[in-house]
Amino acid sequence: MDKRTFLKVTGYASAGIVATPLVSTLIGCGNSPSEKPENALPASTVPAAFTLPELGFAHEALEPAVDRKTMQIHHGKHHAGYVRKLNAAMKGHPLEGRPLETVLASITPEDSGLRNHGGGHFNHALFWKIISPGGAAAPEGKLMQRVEQNFGSLEDLKNALGKAAAQRFGSGWAWLVQDSNNPDRLFVTSTANQDNPLMTGIVSGKAQGRPLMGIDVWEHAYYLNYQNRRTEYVAALLDRVNWTAVASLMS
Ligand code: MN
Predict the structure, then answer these.
(1) Taking ligand 1, which is a single-atom ion, which protein residues have CB atoms under 5 Å away?
(2) What residues contact residue 129 under an 8 Å CB cut-off, 6+ apart?
(3) C-alpha 185 – ligand 1 centre gap (Å)
(4) How far does residue 96's CA lie from ligand 1's centre (Å)?
(5) Which domains are present in the chain?
(6) Tens-digit pLDDT profile for the chain (251 aa)?
(7) Which of the listed residues 30, 93, 112, 145 has the most CB atoms within 10 Å of its CB?
(8) Cα–ligand 1 centroid distance for 24 (angstroms)
């Protein structure tokens, strides 16, 4: 293991999350100085800002499940806004320059800027990956084994995610999560607003773990095409999950 990899691993472990490699490395929402130990930066170095990751596919690629206009606004306006406001909230904060996972695992409910915009950046970067076109149309290998062990079948998992999405009142996310202490245990949960399972200082213990899939149930994710029909949107999305991307996030 080289030094850089070691630092990534220890950084993640110290955040209380057993996972290698960093989720943010996999989903492309890290910032460059986060890969260095905090005391390695000269005092004069200004940490690089978080940046909006490329979508990696055409805005219309998910039609008819998700329309082009929704994707343009969702990625280009909403996600970009979270990145911009996260960078503003990080300025001068004691967690400035730390990896996003460390930030999310360290914040308290008082850190509303980092909570809302750090969560917003992480959640959307993950979302684009797990709905990106291509990849396996169903879980395979170890992931499928774990899906069957924990839920019964893929259909049962989709039903559980659909239920969590439908029951989330107002804005939030439905999640497939891997237990950080027991990698064989997967579970479904949901969080409000831009909270996510990495926020150990904020979300309930039952929702904490390693996020493998997040379904955005904010109205901005579906309203143009589906209006109030959230259930229909979630079902369409679950039928086009990139299970290769989901499996890549599993430890
Ligand atoms: Mn969103």
Answers:
(1) 216, 218, 221
(2) 26, 27, 28, 56, 242, 245, 249
(3) 27
(4) 24
(5) 3-130 (1.10.287.990), 141-248 (3.55.40.20)
(6) 333 433 333 232 333 333 334 677 667 776 654 444 444 555 556 667 999 999 999 999 999 999 999 999 999 999 999 999 999 999 999 999 999 999 999 999 999 999 999 999 999 999 999 999 999 999 999 999 999 999 999 999 999 999 999 999 999 999 999 999 999 999 999 999 999 999 999 999 999 999 999 999 999 999 999 999 999 999 999 999 999 999 999 99
(7) 30
(8) 17
